[in-house]
């Protein structure tokens, strides 16, 4: 494994590459990355570097976003089959038809969406800024929220806005059910529960805080609590333990994102050696999708990430 890491580091320098790793990929991939964090924040940081090559250890829509924000750079994903089922739950054609049913509504798409869906949207959002973004939009406007019905319901609850939901969801988060969360809470009654808003709404009252992965990291660092139940994909626990080695983190239930776990060190090395697999968004689609991303950034402060090593 050390030999693989050495080869990756050598190729990274030779090719002037920046390696990005999402919080849900395996821990050894997070450790070797230049930046680890949330998908949009990673793409923004990569755009600010002088790298010629971006290798995104995440799922396909994340590499697309990196390509949209860095059109002059080459973007690779180490496994071309690493997709996002939730992003695939709405197509551009479906969104076009949905917009025709609600012609006066603004479209807010979760960043966990394809480039084509972003291109048809008025604004993008992240799980961490969705509430703030919607609060900033004109109060008299209906809002179509795609693709995640759970995050959209969370935003509707927190803002009181008229939000029309698309019936998409994250297969990994919906496994975190009320019964499972209550069971682990009963086993660790002294633990603080941090849950992602992609979890089913029935679980929300059981959580002490509903947070994005980036917000979970910040909260755990600042909190005086020593024990946490983490209701999201457990890859985040690797980063939590690195930042807070004196604290205990417990999985809410056994659920993983199989697509995120496809991103291994071996595949990262292969990607750097062979320049595979390139992700490039068609120019017209990229320009329209960039507009939705830029509108979000105009309304809200930048999302930050932190170096993983």
Automatic annotation (TrEMBL):
Subcellular locations according to the entry: Cytoplasm
Functional pathway: Cofactor biosynthesis; NAD(+) biosynthesis; quinolinate from iminoaspartate: step 1/1
InterPro entries: NadA, NadA_sf, Quinolinate_synth_type2
Keyword Iron-sulfur: yes
Gene Ontology process terms (BP): 'de novo' NAD+ biosynthetic process from L-aspartate
Cofactor annotation remark: Binds 1 [4Fe-4S] cluster per subunit.
GO molecular-function terms, A-Z: 4 iron, 4 sulfur cluster binding; metal ion binding; quinolinate synthetase A activity
Catalytic activity: iminosuccinate + dihydroxyacetone phosphate = quinolinate + phosphate + 2 H2O + H(+)
Cofactor: [4Fe-4S] cluster
Keywords: 4Fe-4S, Cytoplasm, Iron, Iron-sulfur, Metal-binding, Pyridine nucleotide biosynthesis, Transferase
Residues that bind iminosuccinate: 22, 39, 110-112, 127, 196-198, 213
UniProt: [4Fe-4S] cluster binding residues: 84, 170, 257
A GO CC annotation given for this chain: cytosol
Main location: cytoplasm
Family: Belongs to the quinolinate synthase family. Type 2 subfamily.
Cross-referenced NCBIfam families: nadA, PRK09375.1-2, PRK09375.1-4
Name this polypeptide is given: Quinolinate synthase
């Amino acid at each position: 494994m050390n030999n693989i890491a050495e080869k990756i580091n050598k190729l990274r320098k030779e090719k002037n590459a920046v390696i990005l790793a999402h919080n849900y990929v395996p821990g050894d991939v997070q450790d070797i990355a230049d930046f680890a964090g949330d998908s949009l924040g990673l793409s923004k940081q990569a755009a600010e570097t002088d790298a010629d090559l971006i290798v995104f250890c995440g799922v396909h829509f994340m590499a697309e976003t990196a390509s949209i924000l860095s059109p002059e750079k080459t973007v690779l994903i180490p496994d071309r089959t690493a997709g996002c089922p939730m992003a695939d739950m709405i197509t551009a054609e479906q969104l076009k038809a949905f917009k025709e049913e609600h012609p006066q509504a603004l479209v807010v798409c979760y960043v966990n969406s394809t480039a084509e869906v972003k291109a048809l949207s008025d604004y993008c959002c992240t799980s961490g800024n969705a509430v703030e973004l919607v609060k900033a939009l004109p109060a008299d406007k209906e809002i179509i929220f795609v693709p995640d019905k759970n995050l959209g319901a969370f935003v509707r609850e927190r803002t009181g806005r008229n939000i029309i939901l698309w019936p998409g969801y994250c297969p990994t988060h919906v496994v975190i059910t009320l019964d499972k969360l209550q069971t682990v809470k009963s086993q660790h009654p002294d633990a603080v529960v941090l849950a992602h808003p992609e979890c089913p709404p029935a679980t929300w009252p059981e959580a002490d805080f509903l947070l994005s992965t980036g917000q979970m990291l910040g909260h755990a660092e600042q909190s005086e609590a020593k024990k946490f139940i983490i209701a999201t994909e457990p890859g985040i626990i690797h980063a939590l333990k690195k930042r807070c080695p004196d604290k205990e983190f417990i999985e809410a239930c056994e659920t993983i994102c199989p697509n995120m776990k496809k991103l291994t060190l071996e595949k990262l090395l292969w990607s750097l050696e062979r320049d595979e697999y390139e992700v490039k968004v068609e120019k017209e689609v990229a320009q329209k999708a960039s507009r939705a991303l830029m509108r979000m950034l105009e309304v809200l402060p930048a999302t930050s990430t932190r170096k993983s090593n």
